[in-house]
Every structure is written in structure tokens, then in C-alpha cells.
Amino acid sequence: MASDLDHDAWALDRDAADPLAGFRAEFLIPQHAGRDLHYFVGNSLGLQPRSAAAAVAEELERWGRQAVEGHFQGERPWMHYHATLREPMARVVGALPQEVVVMNTLSVNLHLLMASFYRPRRERAAILIEAGAFPSDRHAVVSQIRFHGFDPATELIELEADGPNGHISLAAIERVLAEQGHRIALVLWPGVQYRSGQAFDLAAITRLAHARGCAVGFDLAHAAGNLPLALHDSGADFAAWCTYKYLNSGPGAVAAAFVHERHARRPDLPRLAGWWGHRKATRFLMGPEFEPEDGADGWQLSNPPILAMAPIRASLALFDAATLPTLREKSLTLTGCLESLINKHLGAVLDILTPADPQQRGAQLSLRVRGGREHGRALFEHLAAEGVLGDWREPDVIRISPAPLYNRFTDLLAFARSVRAWSLRP
């Protein structure tokens, strides 16, 4: 690759040869100074599919035309609307359809699943998370420990990084489980660590934790739609993820959850129940006793929010059309190209915090600006003013995430040129 920042040809040639190039037109691209914004924030909020508005409008029209009968009539009756998302969402995360349900929001789902899978006893009450976990996850875990009458000061285990740039090795996870697994009730781990961008081996972590008798759950907020996942094969007990990042389903969009099929028919498994998780065959008999539906559906609480789910249907259709292997191939190329540009031209300005091994990262590169936080904020604001949008994570990280559905190689070139221009300022 000719990566000279002063020539466009290599980037234009790659964009022209990109088999996924046509998908960019399926999204609304924000504008900046009369041109497309160079948008690298799909890891925080994905762009809007053009088909999302039509999907919502279709359900609004049905509401106006059919009112309550919309629950029972038409191609996608609202009574079963969430089921139309089941198979495409299962394909995204590598699960069996009955293991997946679209519902609630991410933190709500984590709480519902921990109600079932975090079953602390006096001698085994601890939860293992990574040091520097996303605050919402840490808040949820601390509150669960307290809710059960235990003290987070002793029962929250936060595993510190043992590698450079905040990376945590599988060996470190193995060590803490060997040393403290006897008192750990639950391992709650990210698929991709939000600040460093490190991706983890879900199956390996699950094997290690299960060998010590721990339940295992994953927060896949930064992994779903970003990396090829094999949730079913991983053996994890549960997982949860949002859909507004790489899955492009809109701000605060409805999230999703996974419960492994071995838990599909476990009436002994406690849960916080709601009537939409009741067995469909008897739900409308309105009986007093809760009979959980098989599979992940049994964790539902309420009937699905149709207008909020419609954009998810639009986005998942694009994933099915593009296919995850093709998306991953382009993602590897985009992120590798971005890494090459930084190492070749911008190494005096930026340090890459995300692992260099492509198998330990997704689309995101976390960058630290040399010179400290003040320099980092100055570069971040310069990029935004130039129409190159990443995001900032305290205390000193700029995250740049080229999403393969809509980012181009020319976007990477624009980023690199903008950083160089800032570095050469008087």
C-alpha cells in the first residue's frame, strides 16, 4: 500500500474495489462544511440506516389504520414482533435463535440476568470484573452485591491489567481464578474493553471460570456487530448487549440478551418475572402462577416496544445482506490501514493503546496523544473542527472506530492528514 499522506490514489483505489462500498449509501451521513463528515464513532452511536424511518413509519401507519388489531394482523403482528428479530440477531452473535431475545436496555438486562445467575452464598459471594470497567457495569455489580447483603469492599474483585496500555492477559484471568475462584460466584467480563479496545476470548474465559464453579456472563456492548462471536459455542451462561453502537439501531435503542440453551427449561432458576416472559400457550389465561417460556424469552417482562424495535429490524437486514465474515474482513483491513498510517506518519504524536494483534481487537483503535491530556483535548477539538469525529474517553483517550458498513479508506486518509496538520501547527 502506498500510504503517502499527500496522495489520494491508494485510498480511492481501495474504496473503488471495496465489495461493501454500496452499503455506505444505505446510511445517512452527517454533513460538515458542505461535505460528508468523517465519522468514526460507530462504537458509541452508529449512523442511521435510511430504511429505519420507513420501518418506523410502517408501524405508525398500522397503528393509525388498525389500532389494537395490529397486534394480531398483518405480516408482522405486534404480538410476535420481537420474534422477527430473533434469528438475525442470533446470527450476529453466534447463538441459537431460542437463546436470544431483544428487550429492555443493556443495564436492565444485566440486572435481570444477574438476578438469575448471581446466587451468592456466605462462602462464595464475590464478582470478578476488570479494573476500569465501564461505570454502568460497575454500578450494577456493586448494587447487586449490596442487594444481596454483602460488602463490595470484600466481594468485588477488580482484576488489574498485567500488560501494557491496560491490557489484561488470559494468564492473569487464569491466576485470579486459581487463587480466588472458590469464592467467586460470577465472572462478568466485557467482550471488548471500552477504553482500551482489547477483545477477549469468550470461550477461554468461560472454560476457566466454569472449571472453578463460577457462573459467567459477558457485556458485549462493544463486541456485538463488531466482531464475529460464537456465544453458543463459548458456553457462557448469559450475555447482554446494546444495539445503538455497531448495530446502528438508534440512540438508547432496545438491547438484547442471551441465555444459553442449557438453561432454557430450568424452573428452579430464580428470576424477576413479568407476564411477557410467561409461556405463550397460557399467557392470556391470566393465571396467578408464572410459567416461564422456554429459552431467553422467559426473561422478558413486558410486551415489546414496536416503534423502538423497528429500526433494529432495518439494521439487522443490512447485516444479513453484508454478512459478518465480509464485514470482519473489511474491518481488519480498515483498522490495519489506520494502524499503518499512524505508525508510519504519526508515531511522534500518537500512541496506539489497543492490542496490535488483530485477533485481540475489533474496529476500534484507542489513541493517546503524546504530551498529556491537554494536548489530547486540543487534538480532539481540532479533529472535530475539521469534520473528523471520534470520541473522547477520560482521562486521555481518543477512540477512532472505522465501521465497515459505512467508513471508507478516504476517511482514514482525512484523519491522518488532520492529525499531521495539527502536529505541524506553529
Description:
- The chain is globular.
- It is built from 14 helices and 17 strands.
- The longest helix has 22 residues, at 324-345.
- Helix 2 (50-66) runs antiparallel to helix 11 (306-322), helix 4 (106-117) runs parallel beside helix 5 (135-147) and helix 12 (324-345) packs parallel to helix 14 (409-423).
- Helices cover 37% and strands 14% of the residues.
- Helix 8 links the parallel strand 9 and strand 10 (215-219).
- It has two domains: 9-18 and 323-423, Alpha-Beta Complex (Aspartate Aminotransferase, domain 1); 56-319, Type I PLP-dependent aspartate aminotransferase-like (Major domain) (Aspartate Aminotransferase, domain 2, 3-Layer(aba) Sandwich).
- It has 426 residues and is of the alpha/beta class.
- The model has no long low-confidence stretch (mean pLDDT 96).
- Strands 6-12-11-10-9-7-8 form a seven-stranded mixed β-sheet, with helices on both faces.
